[in-house]
Design brief:
The longest helix is centred in the last third of the chain and has 34 residues. α2 packs antiparallel against α3. The protein has a domain of 62 residues. A two-stranded antiparallel ribbon has the order 1-2. The protein is an all-alpha fold. The chain has 3 helices and 2 strands, in the order αββαα.
């Protein structure tokens, strides 16, 4: 009985190894008309751009995620301050602590919002747009500006 299990295990292992040797490599596909690329490794890759300017997008994404997490932490601090204020039961020390917690949370939230605005402003205007594209300073900007005209 044991020999039969061993032989079956060896046969199954040999079949598995043989199937790996027989497998064919993936071939490139021709993309349909209207796709971004003319050929790709998979059909799904036909509409994926090959961006060479990923560094600024990556930096902007990382900074925005960090600032967003800080904003979420500030909101949590505000909520904790509110809970502390609600459960203080009139104790002056707890009320003062809760008010300070809420103030610190609001200040943190304002700082996070300003940091988000400043970082995106600098990345867009100084470094050529970050993730949104932007004017590279050569006079060939593809950005369109909104013009509001007053009607008579």
């Amino acid at each position: 009985m044991k020999i039969k299990k061993i032989v079956m295990g060896v046969v199954m292992g040999a079949i598995a190894c043989a199937s790996l040797l027989i497998a064919q490599p993936a071939m490139a596909v021709n993309c349909p008309s209207g796709s971004i690329k003319s050929s790709a490794d998979t059909l799904a890759g036909c509409n994926v751009k090959d961006d060479e300017d990923d560094l600024m997008k990556t930096v902007q994404t990382i900074i925005n995620v960090i600032i967003s997490v800080l904003g979420i932490v500030a909101v949590i601090v505000i909520i904790l301050g509110g809970v502390t204020y609600t459960t203080s039961q009139g104790d002056a020390a707890k009320v003062a602590k809760a008010k300070n917690t809420i103030i610190y949370g609001v200040v943190g939230l304002v700082i996070a919002l300003l940091a988000y605005a400043i970082v995106n402003f600098v990345l867009y205007n100084v470094f050529g747009g970050g993730a949104d594209g932007g004017d590279s300073g050569d006079g060939n900007s593809e950005n369109t500006s909104l013009v509001i005209e007053r009607q008579a």
